[in-house]
Amino acid sequence: MKTYALDQTATPLLSTLQRCADRPNAAFHTPGHKRGQGISARQQQLFGTAVFRADLPELPELDNLFAPEGVILEAQCLAADAFGAEQTWFLANGSTCGIEAAILATCGPGDKLILPRNLHSSAVSGLILSGAVPVYVSPTYSAAWDMPLGVAPEAIATALTAHPDAKAVLLVSPTYYGVCSDLKAIAQITHQHGIPLIIDEAHGPHFAFHPELPTTALSAGADIAVQSAHKVLSAFTQSALLHVQGNRIDRNRLTQSLQLTQSTSPSYLLLGSLDAARHQMATAGTSLMARTLALADQACTALNGLPGLKVLQPATDGSGIIGDRTRLTIDVSDLGITGFTADDLLHNHHNVTAELPALRHLMFIVSLGNTTADITQLIAAFKQLSQHPSLPLRRLSIAEVPPSPLPPPLTPRQAFFARKTPLPTHQTIGHICAETICPYPPGIPALLPGEPISAAAIAHLQAILSAGGCLTGCSDPSLKTMRVIQP
User: Fold this and answer.
1) 3-state secondary structure of 101
2) Rounded to an integer, what distance in angstroms lies between the CA atom of residue 118 and that of residue 150?
3) Residue 487: pLDDT band with limits 50, 70, 90
4) With left for phi above 0 and alpha for psi between -120 and 50, is residue 471 left, alpha or beta?
5) End-to-end alpha carbon distance in the chain
6) Residue 60 forms beta bridges with which residues?
7) Hey, which residues does 482 pair with through a beta bridge?
8) Which of 168, 187, 247, 264 could form a disulfide with 221 if both were Cys (CB 3.0 to 4.6 A apart)?
9) Cα separation of 223 and 217, whole Å?
10) In 3D, which of 237, 241, 232 has the Cα closest to residue 200?
11) Closest CA to 389 of 344, 467, 336, 353
């Protein structure tokens, strides 16, 4: 690999993209709008024209994402240095394609992959594509907060003892709520078995840039970390990063896997934004994260003082939960309303929008893009919401649907290719599920392809629907019918 002088103030890809966008040129290449000349009036009204001039294909100056030798390679080297990796790949299909590629690079048909039951749906796709056999471990559960937490090192050790032929371990850390597993201990256990540790770190790309944030997956010893650069950093939506270190990953196979899961026409708007986001964090990340943490702490202190509210901020509320302080989870159940109802009131009447509503609480992401005015508006909205008359609220709990400890009858891949049929939901109990059924967000499946359908799982999904939530991944979002594997 060509090496570069790592000047973190440089933006090689973004600067080259700007030069190409500004150059007068008769374009006879894709895309069809030809640098914005063919856009509709409605596009121009919303987007302007400048962004279309930078919407370019893989011109000679702009390198090739799948065989980088120029500005993309230089930008990726700068990102690896900034985020603490040995090698970094830019992703234009989101963290989803990175998780899929990581599974494809480490597991083949019939290989065992240890992963948490509350996995993201992208891991399900990776299981289907690779043919790997899942070995599920259960995360720790907090009854006080009615949410899954991290995975205990002991759970990984037990799974590896029972399945010494596993090819890799994949975990989600931090979770959607910002909760982290003890990755250092888990990495040591995993590496003792000679296999790699893959971390879905989609919600933690900012960890490397402030000492008061959790330890990064790479610092803890992970072999692969996949990060969404758009969730809390300033890159465009769908842009992500895949980082690798050590010698447990076949990097050629990983590169081939990324070619399977990424578009052959990657957006340079996304790639350029990755270069820009890296530059921003490398040059000003510490101050930006200090300000973000201060805003989150301000919100936490104010909201904790309001009647009927309880605020979870990992590592600061005495719960023993370790995680990201920029995630604010607010329990509203003592107000007699669900998180879904609170979300509707906040969004439609106070212009405050949460990232994730659930049955008992809402989760808010405080990022470098938030302002003091945003925090003031959040606090004011909850002050009004806290005056809502308290009513009895039945405590619905995800713990009512424990995962089956038995291996599923079919792998996700076998279920994907099996013949399927729809049945009325009340008739599906005992059948094998043919769908990935997720309360969304955050895209964590309640039922996976190949798993037996239980009455408890159906009751759980129906409770979420009745409380105002929605389901994705199923053919009938109303849950009147479900698709099952034909006997």
Assistant:
1) helix
2) 10
3) confident
4) beta
5) 53
6) none
7) 423
8) 187
9) 8
10) 241
11) 336
Whole-number Å distance between alpha carbons of 440 and 193: 35
- Spatial separation of the C-alpha atoms in residues 453 and 30, rounded to whole Å: 48
- Contact of 241 with 79, CB cutoff 8 Å: yes
Calpha distance 69→429 (Å, rounded): 55
Q: 307 Cβ partners below 8 Å, 6+ apart?
A: 386
Q: How far is CA 67 from the centre of its chain?
A: 26
SS3 for 210? coil
Q: What is the C-alpha to C-alpha distance for residues 75 and 2, in angstroms, rounded to an integer?
A: 12
Q: Could you read off the pLDDT of 124-179 as tens digits, one per residue?
A: 999 999 999 999 998 888 878 878 889 999 999 999 999 999 999 999 999 999 99
Q: Pairing relation of β-strands 438-439 and 471-472?
A: antiparallel
483 beta partners: 422
HEC letters along 219-282: HHCCCEEEEECCCCCCCCCCCEEEEECCCCCCHHHHHHHHHHHCCCCCCHHHHHHHHHHHHHHH
Q: Which helix (H) or strand (E) holds 198?
A: strand 197-200
Q: Report the run of H or E that residue 133 belongs to, with start and end.
A: strand 133-137
pLDDT digits (tens, 9 = 90+) for 195-233: 999 999 999 999 999 999 999 999 999 999 999 999 999
CA nearest neighbour of 249 among 68, 91, 85, 11: 85
Return the ∠ at Cα 457 (arms to 453 and 460), rounded to 5°: 160
Q: Looking at this protein, which amino acid is placed at residue 288?
A: L
Residue with tokens 């440089």: 10
